[in-house]
Amino acid sequence: MFESVLEAGLTAAGVDVRLLGPMPTPAIAYLTRTLRASAGIVISASHNPYVDNGIKFFAGDGTKLDDEVELAIEAAMDMPMETVGSHALGRAERVTDAPGRYIEFCKSTIPYGVTLNGIRMVVDCAHGATYHVAPNVFEELGAEVIPIGCEPDGLNINDGFGAVAPGALQAAVREHGADLGVALDGDGDRVLMADHRGELVDGDELLYIIAGARHASGELQGDVIGTTMTNMGLEEALLALGVHVKRADVGDRYVLEMMKREGSTLGGETSGHIICLDRVTSGDGIVTALQVLLAAHQSGRTLSELKHGMRKYPQVLVNVPSTKGADVSSLPAVRDAVRAAQARLGDSGRVLLRPSGTEPLVRVMVEGRDRKQVETLAAELATSVETALDQAVA
Prior knowledge:
13 helices; 16 strands; five-stranded mixed beta sheet
């Protein structure tokens, strides 16, 4: 339905359209560039259920639009619709080789001659857009692939499979005696992995593995960019290698903005949305997984061995209901509670409060070396925030 409406509206405005069919979000970023298009449009619920389907835009260079352009598009939606005359209507055509083009691009992001021969791996596509792409990429590089979450029906995307529900991947790795597993989200811009024991390897650990390999080979440019939610263990592990981590606000667009500003080529989020800017212009789960597999190939070490160079700090997140966008940090009682919690943690932990960008919630995060202390402080701080919000409303 979305595709039909977009096709009709764009051609009525005199725009030529190329329809790609079901493709991952990062594939649209790549194909927008390589097909020399003016823009790219993705119909996607991202890592969410199908009911959240919406539209993402890419600029002609394959990057996401900045805030000013997005606001201008939203403003234009309230204006009267204008169309061109029938002689100037745009034309629509379907691109039949889009999956093949993107598969070849993904393979090109690791050196020619590097193969995955002898690797048995589970690939979980979350019943999403990578179902006809990701298994082929890894198979064509030589891996024995066990695909799961590859039967989309339009309603089951991200439902019990993929990066947002990695339990299916972990179980399948153990069941099939696989060497590792890869879980993508519904639109393919996130990835989590599992080692041969089925233990999860999250975005911070993937960043550590890629950064360590690139630092060792002299390829790493600039600092590694994380977010305010990035685990302190990543900072410590990379600092031991002489690599610094800088933090952006939560959200891949803010990570990308800081990467460009700082001249960095590697950044990402704990969720597994990782950007290798020397290979791609946006987060790409398949490309990220290939960079991790390349690190394993070059080092001769397993995924489990690579991730154990980083020790994660216990991190507890509590969601407190609030008015959407509420500035809780301005409440004196909240500021006092945060200061008290930070004082108890000292230099061995941190406290973070931030309003959710999509839900009426305040995220209360506490991180530190001692799990019991972290859990206690998170619960106490969440209670303090909830009480302060109730009093402010009253």
